[in-house]
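Exam prep: given the inputs below (a chain plus dinuclear copper ion), describe the expected output before reading on.
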Amino acid sequence: MDALTGVQSALNPQGPHAAVIHEISWVLFIGALTIFVVVMAISAYALFAQRDRARKLRETSLIIGGGALFPFVTLSALLVYSLVRANSLSAPPDSSPIRIEVTGEQWWWRVHYLDENGRRAFETANEIHIPVGRTVEIALSSADVIHSFWVPALAGKLDMIPGRTNRLRLLADRPGQYRGQCAEYCGGPHAFMAFFVLAQAPEDFERWTARQREPASLPEGDRTGSRLFLAHCAACHTIRGTPAEGTRGPDLTHVGSRTTLAAGMLPNNAGTLAGWIASSQHLKPGNLMPSFQQFKGEELRALAQYLESLK
Ligand code: CUA
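Solution:
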């Protein structure tokens, strides 16, 4: 029953926006089911009842009432209901929202947190932390093709379109880890374009943001890993506080603090980091990062340990 109660289920809403969508879905489904059952019952009556009884169904008033008036009234009512309910999804939040920009890229999510003045405070990737009980406004855009941002347990689905910014609001009622998934086919490994939203108690969220704003801590002891990173990875990745300032790939300043790797694909640890560096093309064919097969075993281990230490 994971589909009903799991971390990626629209049938298990964890916030008011998702709850509205959940409610509309059930009202429309039950409405449609009721009408279907009634129509089938009348059809069965027409087919199987005694002739003179079935003939009553031919009365003009019944045909106009059931065939024209009833659908018109019911469909109009359901339309008005769903428009009014859905309208509350775009109502402005009462307090100042947390503002985040998420950019879809093949096949991962670039995430910028904005400060109170709307300036970019820090960058991260593939993992969105939010405080419970506070509205989050996410500006969605794309760097390449059309993607679609969907965290079923928290909000509806919204496309990320190149050259356009769409705004999505969401709010989590309780702490938890909710899975999101790209919901628009965007090329080969589209199915591996996932992410997690981590809803946290406000003080945990504050602690997390304070940490994320800081530059990376310097490695203690052996510097092999950071040296290799600067030589091979810095053209595409940033680690704030070091000369690595590449922007093509995810910002790795605090990569060790993330729960997953490669956009929700792998759990994040030294082993999967090494595996990803050596075989990223095998794991996610066509992504911008080549497989780095030139590293010796101990070099790969040093590099992975360095990245894992970036908490
Ligand atoms: Cu991005 Cu599908």
